[in-house]
Amino acid sequence: MRCNKCGNINDKVVDSREAKDGLSVRRRRECLDCGHRFTTYEQLEHSDIRVVKRDGIREPFSRDKLLNGLVKACEKRPVSIDILERATDKIIAEIQTEGSKEVLTQVIGARVMSMLEAIDPVAYVRYASVYREFQDVGEFIDEIESLGRRPAKGSKDSDFFRQ
Questions:
Q1: Cα separation, 144 vs 126, whole angstroms
Q2: How many domains does the chain divide into?
Q3: Going by DSSP bridges, is the β-strand pair 102-104/11-19 parallel, antiparallel, or unpaired?
Q4: Pairing mode, strands 50-52 and 102-104
Q5: Are residues 101 and 137 in the same domain?
Q6: Do 118 and 155 form a contact (C-beta atoms < 8 A)?
Q7: pTM surpassing 0.70?
Q8: Are residues 60 and 112 part of one domain?
Q9: CB under 8 Å to 81, separation ≥6 — which residues?
Q10: Which of 3, 2, 13 is nearest to 36 (CA)?
């Protein structure tokens, strides 16, 4: 692992422990050149799952891409990165439970919208506007009104989303 201070590739692991409910390993490292300590996370790669995009193109599943979409939707909202990482892990676990080697982007998008609806309604509308390709303000208004008519999701109050 390259030191983020001096760029040296020689380091030693000072501490390792389980992180994120057993889904990754947290490692404290120390650069052997400058002595700088830094943290890395090691997690299982989900490369065996392929994503089928709307145009039929297939690509490897990317946890980072999923998390970045959630982060982008929640930009400037009072939602911690920890909540978004747990939401990402939950979506991945649901996809893996199905056991399919390929998953449609529509399935991923629906799961993301469901998760965001429970986390933050504003982030949900942001994501929905891009995912559903809203063309005018009327579609925003329709979605917001629809959101207001739905019963509140109980999962927002669960321990899953508590910081």
A1: 10
A2: 2
A3: unpaired
A4: parallel
A5: yes
A6: yes
A7: no
A8: yes
A9: 71
A10: 3
In terms of Cβ atoms closer than 10 Å to its own Cβ (0-12, 13-18, 19+), residue 140 is middle
Q: Which two tokens stand for residue 60?
A: 């490897």
Query: Tokens at residue 157, please?
Result: 């109050």
Q: Are residues 34 and 64 in the same domain?
A: no
Phi/psi at 131 (nearest 5 deg)?
-60, -45
DSSP-derived letter for residue 152 is P
Q: Which domain holds residue 107?
A: 45-161
Tokens of 80: 């911690």
CA distances 105 to 12, 131, 138, 143, 146, Å, are 40, 10, 25, 20, 23
Return d(Cα 6, Cα 4) in angstroms, integer.
6
CA-nearest of 160, 66, 64, 53 to 113 is 66
Q: Which has more pLDDT, 163 or 26?
A: 26
- Are residues 37 and 49 located together in one domain of the fold? no
> Look-up: residue for tokens 């509308």?
125
Q: In this structure, what token pair is assigned to residue 151?
A: 């019963």
pLDDT per residue over 65-112, tens digit each? 999 999 999 999 999 999 999 999 899 888 888 888 899 998 998 899
**Residues 100, 25: one domain?**
no
